[in-house]
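Predict the 3D structure for this chain.
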Amino acid sequence: MDIQQLKNFLVLCETLNFRKAAERINIVQPALSRQVQLLENEVQAQLFNRNNRTVTLTEAGIFFQKESNRILQDLDKTILKTAQLHKGEAGEIKITHASSAMNTVVPSFLVKVKHTWPDLKTTAQETSNSEQIDMLLTRKTDLGVAPNIMLPPEVNSRILYKENFVLILPKQHPLAKKKLTDLSILKNETFILPQLSTGIGYVEAILQICQDFGFKPKVAHESAHSIAVLRLVEAGLGISIEPISSVRGADMNIKLVELKNIPQKAAMILFWLREREEELSRFIKMF
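Done. Predicted structure below.
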């Protein structure tokens, strides 16, 4: 049995006339009769009642007609879905990201994907730098976006943008009303930062800022999520340094000091597995 046999069978079901069905299919009538006979032998059931005047479907034939229609419809859907997957028009694209990326590039990327490929499922997960790398290497995600991340050799990347860091203080902090030019004044403050092991590359940049001003920050609380950091600062449990995009739209009792005059910048990086670059190129170009 093949697909063409099923299609020919369905034409005969529609016409209930061997001559008309053969003409529509563009084969000779004996060939169609032979196909039906072979089909009946294969399914081990009589599909048609036929005499010199009429052709009707048997009960088995009615069932086989219904199921044949379903099979061919499913096949058409499978063929279409396969082509869509090949073209990136269906399936799923998974992306991991840092908090600040959700305030900048991630939403616009998701909108572009949805507009271009409405049937493509998109998944975005906020997580730490180290977790992003682990998920990428194990193919649990397709793309990652994070600031100042240090990447293994299996991963390729490009910088999407650079921005300034900001110092984040509680609004009632004694330093909140002062003009800060020398950050060494922060040496006795307690900081809220991501863990060094999870914020690969990003935390090093913040530590370098502090080191350039002659001190190592005293870390009281650790969190990889910007909203948690901001809440802890607002509660007066410490201060922090974040990319400026992390605090975009934040309506909280905090004081922001943009660090414009330091060499360190927050570089937002898009990254992916080198071996999947061609496969993911259409998505990479959308950032």
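The chain has ten helices and twelve strands.
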